[in-house]
Amino acid sequence: MSETTDGRSRQLRIADSIRARIEAGEYQPGDQLPGLPALAQQYQASLVTVRLAITRLKNEGLIVSRQGVGNFIRRKPTVKRYGIGRYSRSVWGGQNPKPLLIAEGGQQGKTIGQTTETEQVPAPSFVAERLPGISEGDLVYVRRRTTTIDGVINQSADSYFTLATGQRSPDIVAGEGPGGHIARINAISPVLEVQEEITARMPTSPESARLEIPDGTPVFEVIRTYHTADGPLDVAKFVIRADMAAFDYRFPTPD
Amino acid sequence: MSETTDGRSRQLRIADSIRARIEAGEYQPGDQLPGLPALAQQYQASLVTVRLAITRLKNEGLIVSRQGVGNFIRRKPTVKRYGIGRYSRSVWGGQNPKPLLIAEGGQQGKTIGQTTETEQVPAPSFVAERLPGISEGDLVYVRRRTTTIDGVINQSADSYFTLATGQRSPDIVAGEGPGGHIARINAISPVLEVQEEITARMPTSPESARLEIPDGTPVFEVIRTYHTADGPLDVAKFVIRADMAAFDYRFPTPD
DNA sequence: TAGTGGTCTAGACCACTAG
DNA sequence: TAGTGGTCTAGACCACTAT
């Protein structure tokens, strides 16, 4: 009696028990959990209850389910480190510029794919707040890119810039010319500073589906602004799976 | 027939429908949703199914439940911006040093609470990797702090430093003396650079309970290293509610 | 085909909150 | 007390995967 009732719900105690086993290393990443019927038997609970416990662990990012196969301890995917080095002139100004966001930490042997399209849209508020002279709803260019690593969608990136900027450099709109996007911005006016604003949130269901994000995985939302001698010329929003990314900043102690 | 069946499950379609209403502004933050029985009636589904739909929206951070009251559209909490300015010498070296992480963006009229305790623990791996001469399991000091804003637990912070460092400055261990923690580190050896490594993940259930984090809210995990003339002296891990934080970095384009 | 997870139901009961 | 959300059950049926 004493150990079976502690005021916590059955599903919570089941989840706690399984989580403890995972954290203790009793279950290793990639291992398959006992089937739901077995767990129900083991914990003397109904199938639904045990499933609710598993759902919690999925939402914590500890377990992934494969329908028709089983529940598995989640493997930690390779984490990519995003340091400021990826903005180095030597990276994008050189002979063989790498895609900007894959510059560091990417292991060898990865297949990187990218799709791009450019169109005109009304400026979202976060763009209007950062691009001088632009109000929400004004037409701006957006360059949408989706990057995959080994077939897994890793991030989406939307770069916004004004129609005037697009006129000054058709290459930007077309996504052509030497170097990457930053090189083309730089050709218009030197990029003096880079600003990154980082938030994190849960993806919405449609987003999860589109980016193929498993349950329990947050996303980073990064707003990156290129500050040039002519002011901010480009505002981009990145959505990146949080389980595949780490940001790394190192700076001198400010006065 | 055609519109009722699209291959998606009932709970997904209900969740999509409610999400669309939220995003369209039909429901405003703070608004109460119709009760579960009403929704069940409206969508011609069982209570359980409608609850599963609501659970999804909670896990997306769009809805919060208050037992015995109802389901509500989630209000966006005030976001605190973490810029590098909070490490400025003028902030912590001045007369009335503010708590480091609240330096910027904190609105007026907030009540800030902090609890602190210091003890010796075996070094976790992330500490051993960053403090020279320390191997995993070696005894180190840890200074644990929990910060609340208006009674809401906002973050926990664990600072790790070596026993040798503690001996050089008893103030660090006691958490006393002029200025904050950084000032005391700085007194031992000038802090030349600050490094912050940022990841995001879902909190575990125990963590959610301890930090009182609502469902659908990820946490930032920040590892901050103080690099001094004597090398890294202090490694701290912060766990911060992601819905109350935004990080802001701005740096010159590296060469 | 057999085993897995996923969805759904009707209904019982508990826990919390407001009036 | 009445209404709300939370937990739990037994059982039916669907969807997917492996063999």
What report would you give on this structure?
Two copies of one chain form a homodimer. With 255 residues, chain A is of the alpha+beta class. Chain A contains nine helices and ten strands. Chain A has helices at residues 10-23, 36-43, 47-59, 89-92, 125-128, 163-168, 170-174, 181-188, 205-211; strands spanning 63-66, 70-73, 80-83, 112-122, 139-149, 152-162, 191-201, 219-228, 231-241, 245-252. In chain A, the strands form three sheets. In chain A, strands 4-5-6-9-8-7 form a six-stranded antiparallel beta sheet. In chain A, strands 1-2 form a two-stranded antiparallel sheet. In chain A, strands 3-10 form a two-stranded parallel ribbon. In chain A, a hairpin with a 2-residue loop joins β5 (139-149) and β6 (152-162). In chain A, α1 (10-23) packs across α3 and α2 packs across α3. The radius of gyration of chain A is 23 Å and the shape is elongated. Mean pLDDT of chain A is 85; it is low at 102-108. Chains A and B meet through α1, β7 and β10 of A and α1, β7 and β10 of B. The structure holds a DNA duplex (19 and 19 nucleotides).
